[in-house]
Amino acid sequence: SLKHDLKDRVPPEKKSEYELQCYPIYDIILAAGLTSIDFWSLDIEGFEEDVLDTVPWHKVNIKSILVEVEHSDRDSILSKLQAQGYKIHKEFGKQDVFLVKD
Question: CA 65 to CA 82: how far, in whole Å?
Answer without folding.
Answer: 11
